[in-house]
Amino acid sequence: MNRKWTSLFIGLIGLGIAPLCLAEGTIAGTDIDNTATVSYEVGGTPQTTTSNTLTLTVAEVLDVDVTLLSGPQSVPSGTGPHGLLFVVTNTGNGTEGFALAINNAVGGDDFDPDAATPAAIYFDTDGSGDFSPGDVAYEPGTNDPLLAPDASVNILLVNDIAAGLADGAIGLSELSAVASTGSGDPGDLFPGDGDGGVDAVVGTSGADDAISGQYVISDIELAVVKSATVLDPFGGSSPMPGAEVTYRIVITPTGSETAVTTVFTDAIPANTTYSPESITLNGGALTDDDADADAGAYTTTPAPEIAVDLGDLTEASGAQTIEFTVTID
Amino acid sequence: MSDMMTKEKLVKSLATTTSKGVLLVALLLLGGNALAQQGAIRLEHKAEQQEVVTDDNGIEQTRLVEAARVLPGEEVLFTVTYTNVGDAAAEDVVIINPVPEHMFYVNDSATGENTSVTFSVDGGKTFAAPQDLLITDALGAERPAAAKDYSHIRWVVDSEVTAGGSGTVHFAAVVE
Q1: CA B157 – CA A40 distance, rounded (Å)
Q2: Are B66 and B47 in contact (CB under 8 A)?
Q3: From A131, B21, B131, B132, which residue has the greatest number of CB atoms within 10 Å?
Q4: Per-residue pLDDT tens digits for B1-11
Q5: Residue A10 Cα, gap to closest chain B Cα (Å)
Q6: Cα A49 vs. chain centroid, distance in angstroms?
Q7: What is the DSSP string of A8-19?
């Protein structure tokens, strides 16, 4: 399996794109000075003269990017709240505030998610990526995110899902971010409104960006049951240094839908050492190699864990049994 | 150096050396007098940008306007006009313009009638044609210099600039 390589690849693409969008350009308000010098001789006497100094002031570019971080969220009908994670990035060259808004009346979907009350936009304050109690609600005009050039902030849209929706129905929820100084067509000018009183100019994004996240009604559930068997060096079952512990995980899909590209991961417990090449899936051996084609992987960074690609699971797939072994240190 | 040396001789001997610092000392010693007596070249600097305007017939036309504000990624065309306002011809006229901070030189943009253009990648210490410029990286390996490595542009005027004579040189740079 090559899950890890995929994420590494995406990381590299991200780095490659950054310079092209001209984010991190010369900061608004920067003075660019230019002076030419001429040297020459008149009647054998060398002389030097300098020109007037030209000063160009860099104006503020108003630009913003909104990117969806969450994949399609599988949600059962009649539940909530469910969060969608976005990142808002200031791609301009000045410090800028951004007004955020949620729009669930997006075309091209099967149902409209219900924006959570009293607030549906939250800062991912605790950095969990999920809607959680520590997250601070966004209040328009009160705590608009103020971002330095290239800085970004993670934002959650939080919605409830109505009851009675059909399996597979898709609902879209859109986050928009608009520069506080102004927005419009690229090139629109806001004289003197930029950082430090420089002119502000709308950039290629129109200083306004929006993107939708997706909820998918899914009635598939994966029940996971984990058990352990201990074999000590003396043939008994006492957990002691040198004893082998074999973990067995049984994953049972129930429901009418498909759990797509399911990946099972399990951390190697502290004070134990993974026994190489011990992963099995439904009795068949898997390799530890993350880069090869088979479904198994053992990786050590950031922490030792095993992973098994289960692919698309339906109720017809039946129970999936994964086993692996560790030795107590 | 002998105390007996006259001021004129001192200046002459210093002027034959090539160090800029020494030349500056020589000029300071000469004071304003020498500049007033001899011909002098004045430089005038101008920055412009291309603006696309749609005329009454709906046809897009490009014109140059004075650069007022610049944005990252925008190109600025610089023009330096040199004029000999003195009454004698000036020889060995050399114009040097640093590529402004926060800007990259635009490849092949430096021009000037009757001039030879060379570039520096070492802060103006040495100048050479683009194909002869090398950059040494942190590991000591050399690679050909790119336009964005240029620190200075130099125009050597091929002939003397007569009294009242003038000319222009140009280059373009992009705001980082």
Answers
A1: 10
A2: yes
A3: A131
A4: 344 443 444 33
A5: 26
A6: 56
A7: HHHHHHHHHHGG
